[in-house]
Design brief:
The complex is a heterodimer of chains A (about 675) and B (about 190). Chain A has 20 helices and ten strands. Chain A is α+β, with helices and mostly antiparallel strands. With about 190 residues, chain B is α/β, with parallel strands linked by helices. Classes of the chains: A alpha+beta (about 675), B alpha/beta (about 190).
């Protein structure tokens, strides 16, 4: 019964989406308030109905109802409860339901919290949002019904892919989708503005919190995925430039550009058509990601089960939404008048360069990701584009951005005093060089690029802190006075400092674990000792242990340093008999200085198994935890900005801002 | 001007869409990556020997004129599957008399030397590809990869990944038989 309720709720949600696609729009065109306000009821209704459907699917997973195909092929009665629940979004159908749930969540969010948005803009935005949910609800009902039954039901399920049975990965899709799909509302705002033919500072102010929320969630989703890859895949890598990673990274890059260009639109009424274009393209890239993952277009480690019919349907939806919005853009964008003027050295110019670099970087990742497809279509040759391409193109492109990032917040709007700014950052630059030289002296050796990157990361950290100190006039006034100033600063301003400093810290992690990683891959028999990065790691042997739905070979490694016991590591190799696959569970000793990381692979030959010898991979990854600390600061910074009262209260006026006084730094 | 520029995103999106539509062809398998080198002469390269290993270095000219097709294996000491594959390659050399050449890909010479002395050295020649330049010439997508090269220096076959496990070994042996480097085994 439960699955049928879910199916029925989906169909009702589809009907509501159809109504919401038309009625509010007609209301906005004819000035009929009641029709416009109908969007409030329908958008909340959609959320409730899709929520019921999602709950129904989750209940089927919790009670292991194997009459539902989706449950039978992705769950197992012995699976721990957490992963039964996570199985709800572990398959193509289930994750699509989550996708739509979040789509309706953001629509309802605008209805509930968008009291200060003018009725016409709100009605049009919600109508556009409903177009998207109409498309995806029909896709689900027609090709990917998660509630399909099977008869006779199997005695037990096929189990979820064991790699995915992990806390980090159970939470990864919800966050990723909250980000990915969250950009849908920004897209809807942009299309509504194009329909209305009106974009001004107030528009940017309404859109910014939604962009920021989506961006924070997307950051969380990407970081969770990366963290999972780091400890679960047994390689000790945190980013592989896999197509599926790239398609989640591209909306993040462009979303970051959008966050910054929307500031210019809000404060200076400039970059209008550019901000609109970014809003459209960011969500377009999210849709592209959904398409790539579900169509089997590119070769990747984590694509869903491939079905050309589904791929065609999504491509059709893409053509409608992306093609339609870009056509509207081509028609309407030239009519938008340019906003405030600015000099080549100014906050606006800095943010313009930021946008150019982020846009180019996104283009580069997009090109690298899709190049194999283009080449195959044109010449028939099949190639793969991997990490070397992206490291050689993306990294050098980001370094100038980091240089600029340190400088940007010092620049004032309209026209900045370059000499004054340079004077302020002189000591910061000098201090960064000194710190880098000290690191170089301690480390002795390593690639030049690593030192350049370290220099820039230190520069960014110092410059960000210096700018913050300047704003609260730390050292100029008494400490209590400075703290009072800090309290009075808008939260968004602290948020920026936090996010920029977070990126600097994350960079230390990126650099340390790439340039100074040491790795040993060895055959070991019990009693062997391996020396790595000052640690002595003794392999004591492997024993067989049992988990709820798996067996595991657990190795024991005694770690000592200079004769002092440090810790004992237990890397595992798990075998899941029902899913017939195995996973590695690495063991990690984490400190701020670096991670000692161990994983065992299967015995490489049968002889080795008899002798008790195993393949052991031991890595030392310096500074790797700074990646997670830095990312956490990025998210906290974004979250803090989101709580800024300027974004919540005080309905912005829809008048042209003509104030020439420099606005407080953001 | 602005008008034309505003159409640019739409134009690019339409071009992308065309490629996507083409890419959805159900007969297409993106996971299969054959080498563009098949039936082509092997690419030019010249590699020094691995420092600390007595085996001589490897260049393009060594691959041709051996009287029989040869196997070129790209390996590295940091690559776990290479360890597993090593035993298979050794048996091909020792049991079947296959001539095996190696490219030691982006590997520290000291590590490679230690690896070879630990596991044994079935290679007749090994080129040290520290920069990865030869790897680019050969268009490798990862390590290990193995190529079969005809006696005239033509690339006959490419195998991506380790030749480990029954299925992979029989596939690779079949390719060797096709190339004429092995007699077909009587079942």
């Amino acid at each position: 019964m439960t699955p049928e309720i879910g199916h029925f709720a989906l169909a009702l949600a589809f009907a509501l989406a159809l109504i919401q696609s038309v009625l509010p729009l007609m209301g906005a065109n004819r000035g009929m308030l009641l029709w416009m306000q109908s969007a409030r009821a329908t958008s909340i209704g959609q959320l409730v109905l899709v929520g019921i459907a999602f709950g129904a699917l989750m209940k089927s997973f919790i009670v292991s109802d194997f009459t539902v195909i989706n449950v039978a092929s992705n769950s197992h009665s012995l699976k721990p409860m957490l992963y039964k629940i996570a199985g709800t979004w572990g398959s193509h159908e289930g994750s699509l339901l989550l996708w739509v749930l979040i789509l309706t969540l953001f629509g309802a969010g605008v209805s509930l919290f968008g009291a200060n948005i003018p009725e016409t803009l709100k009605a049009r935005t919600l109508a556009v949002q409903a177009w998207i949910s109409t498309g995806f609800l029909s896709f689900m009902l027609l090709t990917s019904n998660p509630f399909d039954r099977v008869f006779p039901p199997p005695a037990d399920g096929n189990d979820l892919n064991p790699l995915l049975q992990d806390v980090g990965l159970a939470l990864h899709p919800p966050f990723l989708y909250l980000g990915y799909v969250g950009f849908s509302i920004v897209f809807s705002f942009a299309v509504a503005a194009l329909l209305e033919g009106r974009i001004d500072a107030a528009w940017a102010r309404w859109v910014r919190p939604w962009t920021l929320a989506a961006w924070v969630f997307l950051t969380a989703g990407i970081v969770l995925g990366s963290w999972w890859a780091y400890y679960e895949l047994g390689w000790g890598g945190w980013w592989f430039w896999d197509p599926v990673e790239n398609v989640s990274f591209m909306p993040w890059l462009l979303g970051t550009a959008l966050l910054h260009s929307a500031i210019v639109t809000e404060k200076r009424d400039a970059f209008k058509s550019w901000t609109i274009l970014l809003a459209i393209l960011t969500f377009s890239l999210s849709l592209l990601g959904t398409f790539v993952v579900r169509s089997g277009l590119l070769t990747s480690v984590h694509a869903f089960a491939v079905d050309p019919e589904r791929g065609l349907y999504i491509l059709f939806l893409l053509a409608l939404s992306i093609g339609g919005s870009l056509a509207l853009y081509a028609w309407r964008a030239p009519m938008m008048e340019a906003g405030g003027l600015f000099k080549p050295i100014s906050r606006e110019a800095g943010l313009l360069v930021n946008n150019l670099i982020l846009g180019t970087a996104t283009g580069t990742v997009l090109f690298g990701t899709l190049y194999p497809l283009f080449l195959e279509a044109v010449t028939g040759d099949k190639i793969s584009v991997g990490a070397p391409f992206f490291n050689a193109t993306f990294v050098p492109m980001m370094l100038p951005l980091v240089l600029l990032m340190g400088m940007g917040p010092f620049l004032s709007w309209k026209r900045a005093d370059l000499a004054g700014v340079l004077q302020r950052v002189r000591f910061i630059a000098l201090a960064s060089i000194v710190v880098t030289l000290v690191i170089w002296y301690i480390q002795e050796g390593g690639p030049l690029l690593a030192y350049i990157s370290i220099l820039l990361a230190v520069w960014l950290l110092f410059a960000t802190l210096r700018e913050w100190a300047m704003r609260i006039r730390l050292f100029d006034v008494s400490f209590t006075d400075a703290m009072r100033r800090a309290r009075n600063l808008p939260r968004a301003s602290h948020g920026m400092t936090m996010a920029h400093a977070g990126l600097a810290l994350a960079m230390f992690g990126f650099i340390g674990s790439s340039a100074w990683k040491t790795e040993e891959v060895v055959f070991v028999a019990p009693g062997t000792t391996i020396e790595i990065a000052g640690f002595d790691v003794m392999f004591e042997g492997v024993e067989r242990v049992r988990g709820p739905n798996y067996f595991a070979d657990r190795g024991t490694l005694k770690v000592t340093r200079k004769g002092q016991a440090v810790t004992t590591l237990f890397p595992e190799r798990r075998y899941y008999p029902i899913a017939e696959s195995s996973t590695t569970e690495s063991a990690i000793r984490s400190t701020l200085a670096g991670d000692l990381y161990a994983s065992i692979a299967e015995p490489a030959s049968e002889d080795a198994e008899l002798s008790g010898a195993w393949t052991l991979r031991i890595l030392y990854e310096p500074l790797v935890n700074f990646i997670w600390i830095g990312s956490a600061l990025l998210m906290l910074g974004g979250g803090l900005s989101l709580t800024d009262r300027r974004l919540r209260v005080g309905a912005p006026k829809r008048a042209r801002t003509t104030s020439a006084t420099p606005t407080p730094a953001e | 001007m602005t008008r034309t520029l505003a159409f640019l995103p739409l134009f690019i999106a339409v071009v992308f869409g065309g490629f996507f539509l083409w890419g959805l062809n159900p007969d297409r398998d993106p996971n299969e990556i054959p080498s563009v080198l098949i039936s082509q002469p092997a690419p030019e390269f010249e590699l020094d020997p691995v420092v600390g290993v007595e085996t001589p270095g490897l260049s393009r000219s060594d691959l041709a004129g051996n009287g029989t097709p040869v196997v070129l294996n790209v390996f590295a000491s940091w690559c776990v599957p290479c360890r597993a594959e090593h035993a298979v390659l050794t048996s091909l050399v020792e049991r079947d008399g296959i001539q095996l050449f190696g490219i030691n890909y982006k590997d520290k010479p000291a590590d490679a030397a230690r690896w070879l002395s630990e596991l044994g050295n079935p290679y007749s020649r090994i080129g040290s590809d520290l920069s990865g330049r030869a790897g680019i010439e050969w268009g490798i997508s990862g390590v290990p990869e193995s190529f079969i090269i005809g006696e005239d220096g033509t690339v006959l076959y490419r195998y991506v990944g380790p030749v480990v496990g029954e299925a992979a070994i029989s596939k690779f042996r079949e390719a060797l038989v096709q190339a004429g480097a092995l007699e077909r085994e009587e079942p």
